[in-house]
Design goal:
The chain is α+β, with helices and mostly antiparallel strands. It contains 3 helices and 10 strands.
Length: 146
């Protein structure tokens, strides 16, 4: 998750606070959040990735010129450093939402890095959200009916 977490210029590894309640009890996920999840390939391994797409979203897969639709009950996750990240682009594809264990809230150590974890969704990765697709479908049906 470099450069968001553990930047090269930092002498110590970041320690982060994970909010497990929002994932386990409320099932509230938003695009751009950094989430803690079990690796789809190794259930003993916990990984941090940025949530790019939710179920029904259309995601552009870089270097493949493909468009993936995230299936029901799944999400699309990516690391912030595409050159060396195992994520939905390279290894996992769509990941079941049930693997999400929590979301990264803030960096609590080292003291000079204490801050909220930035939740931004890259604009060039998500082609269309499920909501936009539904609106487009509804408007095209409206024109056909008239």
């Amino acid at each position: 998750m470099q450069p968001t977490l553990n930047p090269v210029e930092s002498s110590q590894a970041d320690r982060i606070l994970i909010n497990r309640w929002s994932a386990k009890l409320l099932h509230r996920y938003e695009r751009g959040q950094v989430v803690l999840l079990r690796s789809p390939h190794d259930p003993d391994l916990l990984i941090l990735k940025r949530l790019i797409g939710l179920e029904g979203d259309w995601v552009v897969v870089p270097n493949h010129t493909d468009i993936e639709t995230v299936p029901q009950g799944h999400c699309w996750v990516e690391g912030d450093n595409p050159a060396c990240s195992m994520d939905s682009r390279t290894a996992y594809g769509s990941v079941p939402l049930g693997l999400i264990q929590g979301r990264a809230s803030c960096i609590i150590w080292p003291p000079e890095r204490v801050s909220w974890v930035d939740s931004h969704a890259p604009t060039n990765r998500l082609l269309m959200t499920n909501q936009q697709a539904l609106q487009r479908t509804d408007s095209s049906q409206w024109f056909r009916r008239r």
